[in-house]
Amino acid sequence: PRHRRPGACRARGKPSSRAAAGDFEQRAQAVIVASGGIGGNQALVRQNWPARLGTPPAHMLCGVPAHVDGRMLGISETAGARLINRDRMWHYVEGIENWDPIWPMHAIRILPGPSSLWFDATGKRLPGPLWPGFDTLGTLEYLRHTGHDYSWFVLDQSIIRREFALSGSEQNPDLTGKSWRQVAKRAIGKHAPAPVEAFKQHGRDFVVRDTLEELVAGMNALAGNALLDAAQLRREIEARDRQFDNPYSKDSQVMAIHNARRYRGDRLVRVAKPHRLLDPSHGPLIAVRLNILTRKTLGGLETDLQARVLGHDGQPLPGLYAAGEAAGFGGGGLHGYRSLEGSFLGGCLFSGRIAGRAAAAAVA
Ligand SMILES: Cc1cc2nc3c(=O)[nH]c(=O)nc-3n(C[C@H](O)[C@H](O)[C@H](O)COP(=O)(O)OP(=O)(O)OC[C@H]3O[C@@H](n4cnc5c(N)ncnc54)[C@H](O)[C@@H]3O)c2cc1C
Q1: 24: exposed, middle or buried (C-beta count within 10 Å: 0-12, 13-18, 19+)?
Q2: How confident is the model over 288-304, as pLDDT tens digits?
Q3: Is the N or C terminus of the chain more exposed, i.e. has fewer CB atoms within 10 Å?
Q4: Whose CA is nearest to atom 27 of ligand 1?
């Protein structure tokens, strides 16, 4: 956890001065570029945004620190390196603006359990199988074709306390503090983990109300439009609630909820007990405006199997190596267009080991 006085000055993840103070030259027998991707540079993200994901959002948040600015990729390219698979990227759609930011436009990603109802900006429920936490890039593609940059989760207190996890080490003091006692608290009580409750209270994307009509009025006020109709949302929510009346629902989100609860771990700390969303004993009702946030760069500097950076002629540039996200997690795009969630660090470590060994062997 971060221990910091409110308002205290800190510089982690923020851009440093860009005023040139002079030139310097440093020479080495081998240079390994391991500077990360481009997610902190929204102009570069928009420039490389793939057509298959629709148009780039006008408004998005940053899921990575400002140093992930892609600058070293441009510098390497100027030195003759070949950048490939630039249009491969991995961004999330469940971004909330951090009320206590570390870096500019700092987004926290909600890692959602399966029970929240997901609506587009106009109040239309997202189609299956685009349920919370199911298909990151599929949902991004769908939402980019709705004509709006944001979407909504609608849930209640019983769901938020079980199902909202927040991405980022400082958001999970129980896990990073290795405290089983704290982790066990996720299974009991009415409250969500403290960082989630703090977002519910301070986060500008959260609307918390007792009735659906008040909730929808709050959502429209937050969005600054009148796109949502309380009667339409009520129809959708009641239709979903009815699906819990029998054990063999035909709503595939409800089926997924039942299925997830067959696993004891998920039943205890990850998936809320099925209940009617409009039952006041599970309230208050909560709506969360979800923004797109940048995160991973799946393309980058092309290398051979020894992590040597290749030039435009396909030959290694003498002394230059690349590893990690700067090399698309290895080679210039180890994952292809998609990836298994949470499997990125493996490519960083693996390509880093290869680059380190190859560079050491070359200069020995
Ligand atoms: C909140 C969050 C959660 C994540 N969760 C997961 C997860 O659960 N599983 C997973 O697999 N991945 C996850 N990732 C992705 C993963 O953390 C990154 O892909 C990985 O850290 C990239 O490692 P890297 O060493 O290639 O680059 P980085 O970690 O970005 O490091 C690059 C380094 O280079 C430095 N640098 C950059 N430019 C320059 C320059 N010009 N001069 C000098 N230094 C420079 C930077 O300061 C930085 O120290 C997450 C990322 C974030 C932000």
Answers
A1: exposed
A2: 999 999 999 999 999 99
A3: C
A4: 36
> Is residue 5's pLDDT more than 50?
no
Distances (CA, A) of 216 to 162, 196, 198, 283: 23, 21, 22, 15
**What is the ipTM for the molecules in this complex?**
0.98
Domain 31-88+298-363 has CATH 3.50.50.60: yes
What was the pLDDT predicted at 179? 87
72 lines ligand 1 (CB under 6 A): yes
Regarding the beta carbon of 342 and ligand 1, being less than 6 Å apart is answered yes
Structure-token pair, residue 161: 């306390």
Decide which of 299 and 180 is more confident: 299
Minimal CA–CA distance to 338: which of 4, 88, 26, 116?
88
β-bridge pairing 316-322 and 31-33: parallel
Mutation test residue for ligand 1: of 2, 67, 78, 167, the one with most atoms within 8 Å of CB? 67
pLDDT at 341: 87
